[in-house]
Amino acid sequence: MTETSIGASSAVVAAPPATSRPAAFSGSFVPRLLTGLVILLSWEIVVRAVAPPYVAKPSTVVLAIPRVMTDPEFLRALGATLAAVTEGLAITIVAGTAIGLLMGRSAIVDRMIRVYINGFNALPMIIVLPLFSLWFGYSGAARIGTIIFAAIFAITMNVADGARSVPREFLEVARSFRSGRWRMLTDIVLPASMPYLLAGFRLAAGRALIGAVVAEFFLSIGGLGYYILYNSRAYHHNEAFVGVLLLAAFGVSFELLVNWCTRHFMPWYRRGA
Amino acid sequence: MTIGAIRRNAPLWISIGAGVALWEIAGRLTSAAFMVPFSETLVRLWQLITRGEFLVQLFDSAELFLTGFVLALIVGAPLGMLLARVRLLRIGIEPYIMTLYATPMVALIPFILSLMGFGFAPKVLVVFLFAVFPVLYNTVEGARSIKPEMIEVAKSYRSTEWSLWREVMLPYTLPYMMTGVRQAIGRALVGMIAAEFFLSSTGLGQLIMGASQDFDTAGVFASILVIGLIGVGLTRLGLMIEQHFAHWRQ
After folding, report:
1. A92 by DSSP, 3-state: which?
2. B88 contacts in A (CB within 8 Å)?
3. Most buried of A160, B58, B187, B232 (most Cβ within 10 A)?
4. What pLDDT digit, counting tens, does each position of B183-221 carry?
5. Which residue out of A12, A232, A237, A239 would a mutagenesis test of the B interface target, given it has the greatest number of B Cβ atoms within 10 Å?
6. What pLDDT does residue A8 have?
7. What residue in A sits closest to B230 (Cα-Cα)?
8. Under CATH, what is the fold of the domain A2-9+76-265?
9. Cα distance between residue B192 and residue B224, in whole Å
């Protein structure tokens, strides 16, 4: 409950600087650029001064970017992770939304499974890795399982909150026009829960990414996480760090994508208004 | 407990009872390598507790969790407040905090391992990194909610810097900071387990990994059960802290 309200409100609060782009550029671009330069410069200086030469620093990471990006091994790893995350998220969205809608619209279902959804959601997700490696072996199936487990509860909880908060009048009007239960679910409850679904998706996507990386660490199966692990063990920190940069880029772009979708497809959605 | 409280909580207990029964039945029907019944899990848990190693591991994990978490608070909260006060600094740093908040910190573990080795410090660093950005991110978000006029009014009444922080900044940012604390509790728990899995293996992470390597499914389930209960308890605590301050939010 609080999860959504916080998540959604932060989406709204986070929106203004992105919407007022001209102002953002004139007012805050210079300090942002300067801060970025200061961060990079101090990183470079500190590493050059105290750390061994293999440690990643901005100048060498930048040089590694073209090399890594054209490395077929890296592209294969990237493809494997992205495919797993996409597959896991697709399953998660369908299953998570279905369970969430059921929970939101049926008090009995809600009472039966809420305690488990909350409980699993509170579980540090990577704890299932040893169990999944027993169940599925050291395979891609264990990775997909981890991704789904990491992501699904965020979606379910948010969709359930969304389905519960559909304005009563909408449903009453639909009922007085003799709409069936199924149509009400697909035409009213589902669209009305979309902002919640998106807020849940933002959380879920980040967690899915973490789940995939951790699973690759743990299971030693090919992917971006394993690429990072392997290269950092081989003292190729620069190459490994390009992988981290890419992960960060994914994390941020999920965030931006969801904010953008909420603004453009759901302009009617105003929280707290 | 009054009759009313019992009746209110009845669905919860029925649901928990049904879950346990389902677990028991599923455990009995499937092979022992796949899943063990609830009763056997409890027996195994009792063995672990009485043998004493469990409490040692629990203590180890708690030490790691608390050290990393407290450090994250000590650094994150004042830094967030400072960013709240110095607008230019906030504008400059904000996008980077947002980026790091969205970055999967687990990806840094291999670097930490190869730079800092297997001691206690690198593990604390992992927990710290997991926990600090939610605190910072949310505190800065709270800082955005302070109207500049508030500070101007305080200033024009010749408020000292100290009372400005205490009377204006703190009440405004605290509810947001507490949202960060709640998120940080969950993340620090993940960081703790990740550190125990991938850096030197200790604590509850070692308990569950060891059980999995010995194909001791009962041990795996027992550890997951305990960590799950700890997770639920800490999440509850986080929610309580957050809600306690929530009514300050405007």
Report:
1. helix
2. 31
3. A160
4. 999 999 999 999 999 888 888 888 888 888 888 888 889
5. A232
6. 39
7. A123
8. MetI-like fold (1.10.3720)
9. 14
ipTM of the complex as predicted: 0.82
B75 contact partners, CB below 8 Å, separation of at least 6: B128, B132
The H or E element that residue A179 is part of is: none
B102 sits in which H/E element: helix B87-102
CB B204 within 8 A of CB B49: no
The sign of the dihedral angle between the CA atoms of B59, A115, B131, A148 is positive
Residues in chain B, overall count: 250
Q: Is the CB of B104 less than 8 angstroms away from the CB of A213?
A: yes
Q: Of the candidates B33, B96, B212, which has its C-beta nearest A133's C-beta?
A: B212
**Which of A4-8, A149-153, B91-95, B169-173 comes out lowest in average pLDDT?**
A4-8
- Domain limits, chain A: 2-9+76-265
Q: CA–CA separation, B110 vs A225, rounded Å?
A: 10
Fold of B40-246: MetI-like fold (1.10.3720)
Of B234, B130, B137, nearest to B176 by C-alpha is: B137
Residue A134, chain B, CB below 8 Å: the answer is yes
DSSP per-residue string spanning A111-126: HHHHHHHHHHHHS-GG
Question: Best interface-test mutation with A: which of B20, B91, B113, B216 has the largest number of A CBs within 10 A?
Answer: B91
Mean pLDDT of B78-105: 85
Q: What is the pLDDT, as a whole number, of residue A20? A: 42
Tell me which residue in A2, A210, A240 faces B242 most closely, judged by beta carbons.
A2
pLDDT exceeds 60 at position A25 = no
Which chain B residue shows the shortest CA-CA distance from A214?
Answer: B106
Q: What is the pTM of this model?
A: 0.84
Residues of A in contact with B235 (CB under 8 A): 118, 121-122
Please state the domain extents for chain B. Answer: 40-246
